[in-house]
Amino acid sequence: MVNSMTDDSDTPMDSPETDESDRPVSARAFPEGISDRPQRPGRANVVGAGLIGGSVGMALRLQGWHVTASDINLEAQAEAMALGAADAVGFDHQADLTVLAVPVGVVAEVALEVLDKTDGAVTDVGSTKAGICRRIDHPRFVGGHPMAGSEQDGIRGAKPDLFEGAMWVLTPGHSTAEAVFARIRGLVRSFGAETIALPADVHDALVAQVSHVPHLTAATLMNLADSGSVEHRALLRLAAGGFRDMTRISAGRPSIWPDICVANRTAIVQTLDRLIDSLSSVRGLVDEGDRVGLYRLLDQARTARLNLPVGYGTAEQVAEVVVPIPDRPGELAAITTLAAELDVNILDLEISHSGEGRRGVLTLVVDDAIAERLVGGLIARRYRPSLRPAGRSGVGTGNEPGGGGFDAAGGKAKGADHG
Predict the structure, then answer these.
(1) Which of 37, 80, 148, 409 meets the CB 3.0–4.6 Å disulfide criterion with 85?
(2) How many angstroms separate the CA atoms of 319 and 375, rounded?
(3) Residue 150 has what DSSP assignment?
């Protein structure tokens, strides 16, 4: 299966009674040196050699990773080699990391197969997450979705900087090992992407609104104009910049969208219903000649569009939020998800052992101006955070050179120096 997929340019912890020294390192939530800083390059599989898979392969190779690519399309597989997206073709059973760039309908099946065949971390780039994450609750799996694309199709559109400035959503599960999540997050950030952690169902509801329904709307508008052009030949020649901007995304590869729409149909249908209701209201305003209502609608939309965020920006001053957390899977994911809900960008993070037994200390570097917002949210969730000026713990902003090796099991990679 892992050799037959094309690109989608889209075990519980041991019981508490088990002695810590007898537990495999992959079962420990807080091995030494957990951080999301850049890792030493290792070996990676990229399953699916299309636009996203190819771009991931190129970005990994640029950092010194050895990348093995596979694809059902042997031409795309060969092109991945020729274009510098891979060092080899096939499947590397010794890989530290496997990235699945396959259709969303088969992600779960392929992920389970890869988790069985390798000891490395596994992530995907699919456009829907809830169905996948329901089927896979594994310490070494983190769901992912890079919000990036190109008008160019397939491997020939791949480029190593595709993810620069893009938002990359991560959807860790309840069993995801803290080390795996932190290091996948760090790797994504090393591609130049901004990361945000969300529950899988929340992700699907949000992307239905900002990606899936807009794509369907653009396709519908384009088809409406196209059918009208049969009767009025000049119609499409009148399509100015606004129409072209609105319908640009309809030129995307259609083959991935049936899977996406089926996988996320509940959220998409709910959003379509809201859109239809809103359009009905607009129809009423136009039909009634309600100038005031129309102006209010358009002015509200203009203000919202002008205030649309383009990124988190750069923090002028940073602070450290220090949080004692229990040694169990899911704590890091819960806190990073809370930060996303509060619109707090985590610039860097690190987990160290506490002297209080099976506990850890999580240090988050955030913008000083909004650090209190995160502290308040944590207190509301019954954590006991403290706030201090950045630098006391040695945690930086994630831009420092070096860092430990990528080890999906969460321990020190061979040759890594964790200080």
Answers:
(1) 80
(2) 11
(3) -
Q: Give the HSE-up count for residue 128: Cα atoms under 13 Å, Cβ half-sphere.
A: 28
DSSP β-ladder status, 318-326 and 359-367: antiparallel
Higher per-residue confidence, 358 vs 93: 93
Percent with pLDDT over 90 in the chain = 53
Q: In terms of domains, do 242 and 129 share one?
A: no
Q: Which domain holds residue 88?
A: 20-198+315-389
pLDDT band at 148 (very low <50, low <70, confident <90, very high): confident
Mind listing the pLDDT tens digit for each residue in 149-176? 776 778 999 999 999 989 999 999 989 9
Segment (H or E) for 195: strand 194-197
At 208, the amino acid letter reads: A
- The tally of domains found in the chain comes to 2
Q: How many CB atoms lie within 10 A of CB 381?
A: 12
Contact residues for 39 (Cβ-Cβ < 8 A; gap 6+): 183, 186, 187, 403, 404, 405, 406, 413
CB 33 within 8 A of CB 412: yes
Q: How far apart are CA 347 and CA 189, in angstroms?
A: 10
**Distance from C-alpha of 44 to C-alpha of 66, rounded to nearest angstrom:** 6
- Is 9 contained in some domain? no
Q: What is the pLDDT of residues 362-415, one digit of tens each?
A: 888 988 888 999 999 999 998 999 988 876 555 554 444 333 344 444 433 333
The edge-to-edge listing of strands for the beta sheet with 88-89 is 88-89, 66-70, 43-47, 97-100, 121-124, 141-147, 167-172, 194-197
* Average of per-residue pLDDT values in the chain: 82
Residues 249 and 102 in one domain: no
For residue range 217-267, list pLDDT tens digits in order. Answer: 999 999 988 887 666 666 777 777 788 888 888 988 898 899 999 999 999
Q: Are residues 50 and 150 in the same domain?
A: yes
Alpha carbon distance 412, 251 (integer Å) = 46
Q: For 17, how many CA atoms within 13 A lie in the half-sphere containing its CB?
A: 0
Distance CA 180, CA 58 (A): 22
pTM for the full predicted model: 0.76
Reading the block at residue 182, the tokens are: 């932190």
Q: Are residues 375 and 235 in the same domain?
A: no
Question: Domain check: are 174 and 237 in the same one?
Answer: no
